[in-house]
Amino acid sequence: MTAALIDPDRLWRRLMxxxxxxxxxxxxxxxxxxxxxxxxxxxRIVAWAREAGLAPALDAAxxxxxxxxxxxxxxxxxxxxSHIDTQPTGGRFDGAAGVLAALEAVASFDGLPPGxxxxxxxxxxxxxxxxxxxxxxxxxxxLRDLAAIRAVRDAGGISVGHALDRLHAAFPxxxxxxxxxxxxxxxxxxxxxxxxxxxxxxxxxxxxxIQGKKTFRVRLEGREGHAGTLPxxxxxxxxxAFARLAGALHAEVxxxxxxxxxxxxxxxxxxxxxxxxxxxxxxxIDLRHPDNAxxxxxxxRIAALCAxxxxxxxxxxxxxxxxxxxTFDPRLRALIARAAAAHGHPAMPVLSAAGHDARNLSRVCxxxxxxxxxxxxxxHVETEWAEPAHVAAGxxxxxxxxxxxxxxxxxxxxxxxx
Length: 418
Fold this sequence. Notes:
The protein is of the alpha/beta class. The chain has helices spanning 8-19, 36-51, 96-107, 135-140, 146-151, 160-170, 196-200, 238-252, 292-309, 330-342, 357-361, 388-407, and strands spanning 55-59, 64-68, 78-83, 117-122, 176-177, 185-191, 204-210, 212-221, 261-263, 267-270, 280-289, 314-323, 326-327, 347-352, 367-372. It contains twelve helices and 15 strands. The longest helix is centred in the C-terminal third of the chain and has 20 residues, at 388-407. This is N-carbamoyl-L-amino-acid hydrolase. Keywords: Hydrolase.
């Protein structure tokens, strides 16, 4: 069986070695997009790929591809991968498990595939340094203009364009792959980042789709003044407006129904001085829901609440991400279920509550995801953990699906079942 060709010990050793790049004292990883740490991690992965005979290349968006050539160079490739950037206090498995499992599956593929097989590490999935995230897969799928992506700046004023130029300069010998080439199929393994699989005692999650997501930046504009002399009734206090608005948003949007996920995750106050009435508050909104109609209605309610609770301050609402809920290819999901059963791994369908690059790839090719459990459902934390046996099981299923897909290249030529 294909899973026997997966070397679980090698996969685990590489996961732990990659986690050393950007390691935090608490056992997590800080390896944000296009940082020196991520460049070092990409170099490590390129070295492993070359050991396996895979050809590395970068595209203009900073996505790394590691290719095993197939019989027909004109055939659209099968892509497998995820990302290796992390949150500032991220874990060892989010994204990295998917990239290294893909490397293991492609490197151990038995025989000559009909078309190319390519491992991909997408640029800036997390969005922690440069917001919003998933920039690399958006650029690849033609969902966002590369020039607009290059113009985004981090908190220190460094642009994505500048950071991308540094990335390319660090790999002068790597060829440049065209941006947005056709793809036969995309597969992504990931930790669940939730508690469902662990609670159900299942090892493999067959991901049905990803819930929709909207993000916004809200700016409240007041007027600064002396904390000791300006009367309360004459103040345009941006923090007071934020408190009113945040309460209303949490009550009316966050309490909409049990499936809504509403978060205010970043707040910045100016001038942020203890004896000055705040003149400005800028904050982020992250809104998610599996039903696109509910998501749209909630988004409209956010706009109405901002307009109704900001006075006497001014308010501006800037949409950043507008990603509808999607469904993954049922033919690929059936292959995942069959592979899990063949290798004796308990499996179940599961909806992804978190966003992934596979959402963007599903816009341009048949796509699917495999989930494995993570301890307590915890992710984006330094204590994030996946059991070695579960990592190996997921990689084995991924390898089996890749083998089955390559053995039946006409499978995806037929329409999706409805």
